[in-house]
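User: Can you model how DOR sits in this protein?
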Amino acid sequence: MNLMILNAKIVHPRPLGAACTEPGTGTIYIVDGVFAERDQATAAGLIDADGAPREGTDVVDATGLYALPGLIDAHAHLRDPGQEYKESIATGTRAAARGGFTSVLCMPNTIPVIDNAAVVRYVIDKARREGAVNVFPIGAVTKGQQGVEIAEIGLMQEAGAVAVSDDGAPVSTAAMLQRALLYAADFGIPVIDHCEDLSLAAGGLMNEGLNSTVMGVQGIPAVAEDIIVARDIELAGYLGLSIHLAHISTAGAVALIRRAKARGIRVTCETCPHYFTLTDDHCLGFNTLARVNPPLRRPEDVAAVIEGLADGTIDMIATDHAPHHDDEKDIEFAHARNGMTGLETAWQLAWTRLVLPGHLEIGDLARLMSRAPSERFGLGRGGFEAGKPADLILVDPEREVTVDRFRMLSRAHNSPYHGMTLQSDVVRTYVGGREVYRG
Ligand code: DOR
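Assistant: Here's the modeled complex, given as structure tokens:
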């Protein structure tokens, strides 16, 4: 995999608090699937002593395009094994490549659950055979995600799991979470918690508020998220261990995490595009595409999530790509499944809703969507440093896309963004120097 990319505006992840800099135009060298310095490219025979490409060298002219480190999704549901009618490793990773994601961490709520080394190996082997991008499995915290008996975290880590989570549900009790944090720390992998107090959320279909009242639908109060966020923060602080909180959606959770970081507690978290772009107004009309867990919240929560992204309280943007079959969405609101697809719209939404209005700059997206998840989950990616796997994307900031949920590479159609016109698009995706998507 030898390649030379010319004239790209190269976007390096902007460290929090660093000055904003306009990306400089430069050349990217890829030798044997990894990023290389110019002298390494010369030694490998890509270019001559004057820097001109030799005959046979693949050259891409990226004039007018940004080059970013490949995006990394810390939270996706690939539904494989067991629910390939919704998505598979093959279709989910093609959707990822189309969205600019070169690595995807996949959640263990599959059938069977990824709760032992054999299933971890199944996912890794299948991804190697059929996957368009890198797949890193997340193992379950408890056997069958039942919350009763802890899973073999060490064996799963040895087989390639990069984190553990009972996502879809919170870790059942504080005692179970304590055991999981201690056990996972021995193997150096994070515990990811889904923050929802099930006793408060029980029976709820959408955010509790004016809209749920108007619709006559039982609500899920924001405090159901905040209570588990608080539990997790206090436990991590007590143990002196780190924890990662999934899909943060409430103003209260953002405030708790901000305060915890100021106290020196080792908490990281992610939010998802739907929590900085949509409110529970989208549920009006019993729109099942807007059903998701945690639910879409109020405008003040959206504002708090954006503020959390801007000040570093929220460490990363993940998709929570949750594909479902039409038969699970084109039904009554109360029976529809929770979740929306996200891999093919995350970049465009982040650019249109965060960068264009001036909340963030492009280097922040390189941090939030690539460097930060790479560092948190130990993936050794997220930048252009020589020797790193050549995972990168080329982005056209001028290109407009109108989302068509029936024309996606995902097997599923459950995107609430159907018909929305967004600015900026991914035009090339490379994994290990190999082109896996061309727009
Ligand atoms: O909306 C959601 N869908 N939230 C979750 O936590 C799980 C996910 C799924 O697996 O469909």
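A couple of observations from the model: The pocket of DOR is lined by residues 77, 109, 167-168, 194, 292-293, 322, 338-339 (CB under 6 Å). The longest strand covers residues 392-402.
User: Helpful, thanks.
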